[in-house]
Write a structure and sequence with these properties.
The complex is a heterodimer. By secondary structure, chain A is an all-beta fold. Helix content of chain A is 0%, strand content 51%. Chain A is built from no helices and ten strands. In chain A, strands 2, 4, 5, 8, 9 and 10 form a six-stranded mixed β-sheet that branches. A four-stranded antiparallel β-sheet of chain A has the order 1-3-7-6, with no helix packed on it. By secondary structure, chain B is an all-beta fold. Chain B is 0% helix and 55% strand. Chain B is built from no helices and eleven strands. In chain B, strands 2, 4, 5, 6, 9, 10 and 11 form a seven-stranded mixed β-sheet that branches. A four-stranded antiparallel β-sheet of chain B has the order 1-3-8-7, with no helix packed on it. In chain B, strand 4 and strand 5 form a beta hairpin. The termini of chain B are far apart. The chains are: A mainly beta, B mainly beta. Chains A and B meet through strand 4, strand 8 and strand 9 of A and strand 4, strand 5 and strand 10 of B.
Chain lengths: 108, 121
């Protein structure tokens, strides 16, 4: 099965833009979904598919993909965006899901 | 409101067993794959297992194969995880998660609040 690699931590100034990346270990066409987890809470879905947001997720969250790297961008980061963010993908061959190691976003 | 509620967590000694349950409400349970995802203390998310809509297929992460069994009862809108031969490294919050289908992909759009499993002597 594949692995997803994320940077451990990034910081962003309040109101600025930050991009989190998720790299797959082999070139392929794939979609990742992105999850936000605030301390002490269950994860929530923020981005899925090409660049879709569930209802209630602000439009400052966006997703993109290039080759074997997917990205989550927060444009105009807010204090409440400080959280851990995980990418995930499902292997269509094995129906296994895999998560990235997570990126801690700190809003300064 | 679409909801998943886990139960059954607790404290167990190494080698022991535990059965987790997950009750679904607010959506047609039988139309979705469902996963268990866990998170060890201070660690990231780890997918554990999932089961097809009709219960006809099950998949597991290698570390739990042969010890854990996922099952479902669509008549009761319920999901289960039978955990046997538990190890200290199984200590985690266990989340019940709905998988929704897109075009050639799935995403996890409904999460329970989790139930805590502690394996210790």
């Amino acid at each position: 099965s594949s692995e997803l690699t994320q940077d451990p931590a990034v910081s962003v100034a309040l109101g600025q833009t930050v991009t989190i990346t998720c790299q797959r270990d082999r070139l392929s066409t794939f979609f990742v979904s992105w999850y936000q987890q605030r301390p002490g809470q269950a994860p929530i879905l923020v981005i899925y598919g090409r660049n879709d947001r569930p209802s209630g997720i602000p439009d400052r969250f966006s997703g993109s993909r290039s080759g074997n790297t997917a990205s989550l961008t927060i444009t105009g980061a807010q204090a409440e965006d400080e959280a851990d963010y995980y990418c995930s993908s499902r292997d269509s061959s094995y129906n296994h899901n895999v998560f990235g190691s997570g990126t801690k976003v700190t809003v300064l | 409101e679409e909801q998943l509620v886990e139960s059954g967590g607790g404290f167990v000694q190494p080698g022991g067993s535990l059965r987790l349950s997950c009750a679904a409400s607010g959506f047609t349970f039988s139309r979705y794959w469902i996963s268990w995802v866990r998170q060890a203390p201070g660690k990231g998310l780890e997918w554990v297992a999932n089961i097809k809509r009709d219960g006809g297929e099950e998949y597991y992460v290698d570390s739990v194969k042969g010890r854990f069994t996922i099952s479902r009862d669509n008549a009761k809108d319920s999901l289960y995880l039978q955990m046997n031969n538990l190890r200290a490294e199984d200590t985690a919050i266990y989340y019940c998660v709905r998988e929704s289908p897109g075009s050639y992909y799935y995403y996890m759009d409904v999460w329970g609040k989790g139930t805590t499993v502690t394996v210790s002597s």
